[in-house]
Write a structure and sequence with these properties.
- The complex is a heterodimer of chains A (about 210) and B (about 260).
- Chain A is mainly β.
- Chain A is built from 5 helices and 12 strands.
- In chain A, strands 1, 2, 3, 4, 7, 8, 9, 10 and 11 form a 9-stranded mixed beta sheet that branches. In chain A, strands 5-6 form a two-stranded antiparallel ribbon.
- In chain A, a hairpin with a 7-residue loop joins strand 7 (about 130-140) and strand 8.
- Chain A starts with 17 loop residues before the first helix and ends with a strand.
- The mean pLDDT of chain A is about 95.
- Chain B is mainly beta and about 260 residues long.
- Chain B has helices at about 60, 205-210, 215, 250-255, and strands at about 50-55, 90-100, 110-115, 140-145, 150-155, 160-165, 170, 175-180, 190-195, 220, 235, 240.
- The radius of gyration of chain B is 20 Å and the shape is globular.
- Classes of the chains: A mainly beta (about 210), B mainly beta (about 260).
- At the A-B interface, helix 1, strand 5, strand 7, strand 8 and strand 12 of A face strand 1, helix 1, strand 3, strand 9 and helix 3 of B.
Chain lengths: ~210, ~260
């Protein structure tokens, strides 16, 4: 006899036409009045506005042009917009859900998020997690969504003590989670490429 | 699926410890491996390194929430939500069921999104070039929120099977794609629903990537005549399960929020 629980439903690939359901504009048509997209911010969102930009590569080094990526993050105070976040510091920003979805472009393979830089978040056992954005990647050929975290290369000190980054045994692999900052037209851009397989393969997580 | 089960007690955590009840660990033995050569596209899109197993933090145990005011009135009716003067062509069906967690609890107010081919097996997508015609009155996508018990339903037409390039003569069984959120980002899941009795299920490489026969059976929706509308619409029942959570605190907090 063993304890009975229900079993998690089996994942299946999002397929090549994931855009129809989750990003119909990219599929080429307009159906919903309100669309979920890659813009997480409004003019009143607190914090430093940033753009995240990247590409997704497969094991042959080719661009994956049909991926869908979702971002989930804390706000500039390090607070998640969710009742489970009971941190004592900072406050929830009602103008910031902290979630968005982006697709890689069918031509260029580029995805973008318009968001704010998150603050540090309380981790386990009193530790502090460096600013990071949780990413979830699905596409044709991906049987179960891939989870990873994007950290900020210019947060060296916080990154150094981040419990998840420190848990990556091979130090050089930690680099795969660091987004590199640059400035363009007065805007701060963080570049974060995702490598599904091969050299410089991104660290993906069993969360 | 509702005649259940057991309940996990709240996690025992020390002060300043884990800030929020954890989710059950995922049972990868019942999930498709990333690298599954019978599904050829997975070969170059599967990580070769082992996944890094991390203890849950707020980043995994929280997730986005959505409101009814973000959805349109017709978002859960694919027969009319893209109608341009007519109705979508094909067998009219209702798909309904519960979104549960592994404790057997319904997940309330969670976003469910779905998309599919039309009755001829053609998607409204700029990359789909299958010769079956586009249905001018059918978009092929919709979404809804579960009610307070985790129940959802929508109306659509039964999608057709279609060929795809895996082996020569590979055909996808008729299916509907589902995207689920639950209440934590680590519960995020995409899956596909199949139809009872479809002979293509047994030969589909994408389905065969699932290593567990029972898990496959749970993706097949049975006909549900009790929920059908006589002289109008047949119904199929499809329940889905997301990862469990250690505590019931969440539901209490949500109501008081």
């Amino acid at each position: 006899m063993s304890v009975k629980y229900l079993k998690e439903t089996a994942s299946q690939t999002a397929g090549p036409y994931v855009h129809i359901g989750l990003a119909p504009h990219q599929a080429g048509f307009d159906i919903f009045q309100n669309n979920f997209d890659n813009n997480l911010v409004s003019a009143t969102t607190r914090g430093a506005q940033i753009i995240i930009e990247g590409r997704v590569y497969d094991g042959s080094g080719s661009l994956v042009r049909d991926a869908l990526i979702e971002a989930w993050q804390a706000n500039a105070d390090g607070r998640y917009n969710h009742p489970g976040d009971r941190q004592k510091t900072g406050s929830v920003d009602p103008n910031f859900r902290g979630w968005g979805r982006a697709c890689t472009d069918f031509e260029t393979g580029i995805f973008r998020f318009y968001t704010v830089k998150p603050g540090c978040v309380a981790g386990r056992e009193g530790k502090v997690m460096a600013p990071h954005i949780n990413l979830w990647i699905v596409a044709r050929g991906i049987n179960i969504g891939l989870n990873t975290r994007m950290y900020f290369a210019d947060e060296e000190k916080a990154n150094e003590s981040d419990p998840v980054l420190r848990g990556i045994e091979l130090k050089q692999r930690r680099e795969t989670l660091l987004a590199k900052p640059s400035q363009k037209d007065g805007k701060t851009i963080y570049t974060f490429d995702i490598v599904l397989q091969g050299e410089n393969e991104t660290v993906f997580m069993d969360v | 699926m509702n005649d259940l089960v057991s309940h996990a007690p709240p996690a025992f955590v020390k002060e300043g410890g884990n800030p929020y009840p954890e989710l059950f660990r995922r049972d990868y033995a019942a999930q498709s491996p990333a690298f599954a050569p019978i599904y050829k596209t997975s070969v170059l899109r599967s990580p070769r390194n082992a996944l890094l197993s991390i203890d849950h933090t707020l980043s995994e145990t929280t997730g986005p929430m959505f409101g009814q005011n973000e959805l349109g009135m017709l978002d859960n009716d694919l027969i009319t939500n893209y109608a341009k003067g007519g109705e979508a062509i094909g067998p009219r069906i209702i798909v309904h069921g519960y979104i549960l967690d592994e404790n057997g609890r319904g997940l309330p107010n969670t976003l469910v999104e779905f998309w599919q081919a039309n009755a001829g097996g053609r998607y409204r997508h700029k990359n789909d070039t299958y010769l079956a015609p586009i249905d001018p009155n059918f978009g092929g996508c919709g979404r809804t929120l579960t009610d307070e018990n985790g129940y959802y339903y929508f109306r659509t037409i039964r999608p057709g099977a279609y060929p795809w390039r895996n082996y020569v003569n590979s055909w996808r069984p008729a299916h509907i794609h589902f995207s689920l959120f639950g209440n934590a980002f680590a519960q995020r899941l995409i899956t596909q629903m199949y139809f009872e009795g479809d002979p293509l299920i047994k030969v589909c490489p994408i389905i065969k990537t699932i290593p567990d026969e029972e898990a496959i059976q749970r993706l097949i929706a049975p006909l549900d005549l009790n929920a059908s509308v006589p002289d109008d619409t047949m119904a199929y029942r499809f329940d889905m399960v997301l990862r469990g959570r250690r505590s019931t605190l969440f539901e209490n907090r949500l109501e008081g929020n």
